[in-house]
């Protein structure tokens, strides 16, 4: 096509290839293996391609999310919209640099989403597998976009309820990151309804527990380990389940604590103020609440997995992945 | 999913259903009929659904383009990002209203693009038809996103060449609006390579001629007929082929005219100033150039269509559509 499109696309390519933990393809692949997929079988390559298409959905989600959250760095590099903003400014092109950067990033995110579809459609999986995968693929994208919408909508509306925060966890994180990828892997193989149910229970529970761990690390994490500033979520004003639980307890029993929380969230807190809010949240019992909930979820997930027909090897691997997701300190 | 997602989606639904000329599905459907498709046959409904999926791609393109172009109205209603910006302001939610509107519109555009894929995949067309359609569908989306990228990139870089403007016409308009929809219709039926070639030649030529007519109307159109302000493209600073041709002629022969054009484009011109620029563009011969080019393209398109194996009825219909696209005054 000419005109610099190829160069712009190479930016997207570099973004996708330069890093990321490949969590979603890993769960999908493990889901396929666990259902009985043979990694040395003739369909393994097609399945790998179908699983890898999840990374292009994720590229769209990240590129567009970074515009929405006005994030400036991602994976140690400027975000895509900032990269094109910088190019525009550096070349002294006409018009508004920030707007140009966002415009290009919107289009490249769209391209990643379109190519995700191309990739799964052209993966080489059988027509039967494609038919089984179709509703899962469809649900996953509708859900993650819904989760992102709920996230910004809750924040704008100032919805402080645990229910609202939990709904974002359910769709933006759990369904998109673990439940549906596992479901996709099972559908690729043609697993029966019982294994799919077990995977979905496991994925939802571990996915929510993963996010709850993230909530704790976002407030209590050690910056030298997490790589994020101390009390990051408090300063950023994130309406997490942890915060919503603390607020609910404070509203019921400790109006002064509730005021401290509401006045502090989303402001430029000093380290001392972060420490104070941490103590308040802990004293209210919210940390214990969340830790208990993580334990309950992890146990329920383990039960669902253990009693499933997944292969022994995949059970061990999924258990390791569940531990890594929910017991981590970074 | 709850949390207001359904209501947000209903805004997208209303946007898609409230209007638009359905140009792309019409060309796709006519392409299918022309290849021999039977509108009373058993596969007609599935084909209609596959063609209609083009409207969801278009919904994404419009919703995202309106952010990129900072447009405030579309089809007589506020654009999607403005609608959510207004809601945010009206409800006195927290954060920046304009940013919220854009964020929601980015997500709803993504949803339309994802649903376009869902719609064609679940249209009920045969696996063979789906396999034939796949590369066309894929090319079309990559091309239109490329055309949009080239459009904003040319504008930012101040690329004044006819070549650059023509490249945008080729991909953003011709390929996306006529060539690929016709190709898609032919692929749905399973037409042979000769008919596909004829359709593509016809579609590219008429598509470019359509855009050239648009260029003329954007400068010379009667506001009471076009519904757009007088000299709209000049004020908006659109780098059309018409303008690029005028500039090329002026640079070669009339530096004073070139200066007038460069100083005038993209500024808040009065009606008198618009009249002056119109006269300059006409006197330079650019209008004659563009009219000649339209005639040449329409004739080449007619030849390609006439000598093709398309049905007589579809030839008549496509000719009508070509005339409507290239001889219009609105």
Model regions low in confidence, pLDDT < 50 over at least 5 residues of chain A:
none
Distance between the termini of chain A: 44 Å
Q: Work out the radius of gyration of chain A.
A: 21 Å
Number of strands of chain A: 2
**Sequence of secondary-structure elements of chain A:** HHHEEHHHHHHHHHHHH
**Helix share bin of chain A:** over 70%
Give the largest interface: A-B, 54 and 54 residues
Principal-axis shape of chain A:
flat
Structural class call of chain A reads mainly alpha
Main sheet overview of chain A: 2 strands, antiparallel
Tally of separate domains of chain A: 1
CATH superfamily of chain A: Farnesyl Diphosphate Synthase
Helix run count of chain A: 15
Mean pLDDT of chain A: 95
- CATH architectural category of chain A: Orthogonal Bundle
- If strands are numbered along the chain, what order do they take across the biggest sheet of chain A? 1-2
Instruction: Predict the CATH topology of chain A.
Output: Farnesyl Diphosphate Synthase
Binned strand content of chain A: under 5%
CATH class of chain A: Mainly Alpha
Determine the oligomeric state from the structure.
homodimer
Detail the topology: elements first, then pairings:
Two copies of one chain form a homodimer.
Chain A (H helix, E strand, L loop, with lengths): L4 H13 L5 H13 L8 H25 L4 E2 L2 E2 L1 H11 L6 H25 L5 H31 L4 H28 L3 H28 L2 H4 L5 H5 L4 H13 L1 H10 L6 H13 L2 H21 L5 H15 L4
Helix pairs in contact in A: 2-3, 2-7, 2-15, 3-5, 4-5, 6-7, 7-8, 7-11, 8-14, 11-12, 11-14, 12-13, 14-15
Cofactor (chains A, B): Mg(2+)
Pathway (chains A, B): Isoprenoid biosynthesis
Protein name (chains A, B): Geranylgeranyl pyrophosphate synthase
């Amino acid at each position: 096509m000419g005109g610099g499109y190829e160069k712009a696309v190479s930016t997207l390519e570099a973004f996708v290839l330069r890093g990321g933990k490949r969590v979603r393809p890993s769960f999908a692949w493990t889901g396929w293996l666990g259902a009985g997929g043979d990694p040395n079988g003739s369909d393994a390559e097609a399945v790998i391609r179908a699983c890898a298409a999840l990374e292009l959905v994720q590229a769209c989600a990240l590129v567009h999310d970074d515009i929405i959250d006005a994030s400036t760095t991602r994976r140690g590099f400027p975000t895509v919209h900032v990269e094109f903003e910088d190019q525009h400014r550096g070349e002294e092109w006409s018009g508004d640099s920030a707007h140009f950067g966002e415009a290009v990033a919107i289009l490249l995110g769209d391209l990643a989403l379109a190519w995700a579809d191309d990739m799964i459609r052209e993966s080489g999986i059988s027509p039967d597998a494609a038919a089984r995968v179709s509703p899962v693929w469809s649900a996953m994208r509708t859900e993650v976009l819904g989760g992102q919408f709920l996230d910004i909508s809750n924040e704008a509306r100032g919805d402080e309820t645990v229910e609202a925060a939990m709904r974002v966890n359910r769709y933006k994180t759990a369904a998109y990151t673990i439940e549906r990828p596992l479901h996709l892997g099972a559908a690729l193989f043609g697993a029966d309804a019982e294994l799919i149910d077990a995977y979905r229970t496991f994925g939802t529970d571990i996915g929510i527990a993963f996010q709850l761990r993230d909530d704790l690390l976002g407030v209590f994490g050690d910056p030298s380990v997490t790589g994020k500033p101390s009390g990051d979520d408090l300063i950023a004003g994130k309406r997490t389940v942890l915060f919503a639980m603390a607020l609910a307890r404070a509203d019921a029993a400790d109006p002064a604590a509730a005021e401290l929380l509401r006045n502090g969230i989303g402001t430029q807190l000093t380290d001392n103020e972060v420490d104070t809010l941490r103590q308040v949240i802990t004293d209210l019992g919210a940390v214990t609440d969340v830790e208990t909930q993580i334990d309950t979820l992890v146990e329920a997930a383990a039960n669902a997995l253990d009693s499933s027909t997944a292969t022994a090897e995949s059970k061990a691997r999924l258990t390791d992945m569940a531990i890594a997701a929910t017991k981590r300190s970074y």
